[in-house]
Amino acid sequence: MKMKAPLVLSLLVLSVFLLAAMASVPREWPELVGATVAVAERRIKQDMPGVRFQTVKPCQSVTQEYDSSRVRLYVDEAEEIVVKKPMVG
């Protein structure tokens, strides 16, 4: 029984560190509304290096599933300017 206690404690400590690290990564970027797509992508990649982007044009429908490695960039007709807050999902 004594061998299990250190393992459980180690896993608990590791979980706390992982949760703290995840909490420090932004999940949305409201300051990028009005930015160009290139600027938004560069900025978001600083926070999430492995991110995948999906560009969404006006009136384009999207699926409802959540994807923690995706950020949707809602853009204007010219597909140059971000018009809605980018968010993970």
UniProtKB/TrEMBL annotation:
Q: Does the keyword Transmembrane helix apply?
A: no
**Could you tell me the superkingdom of the organism this chain comes from?**
Eukaryota
Tell me the GO molecular function terms: serine-type endopeptidase inhibitor activity
Annotated GO biological process: response to wounding
Its keywords, alphabetically, are: Protease inhibitor, Serine protease inhibitor, Signal
Tell me which positions the record assigns to the signal sequence.
1-23
The UniProt similarity line reads: Belongs to the protease inhibitor I13 (potato type I serine protease inhibitor) family.
Q: Which PANTHER family match?
A: PROTEIN, PUTATIVE, EXPRESSED-RELATED (PTHR33091), SUBTILISIN INHIBITOR 1 (PTHR33091:SF29)
Q: What is this protein called?
A: Uncharacterized protein
- Organism from which the protein derives: Platanthera zijinensis
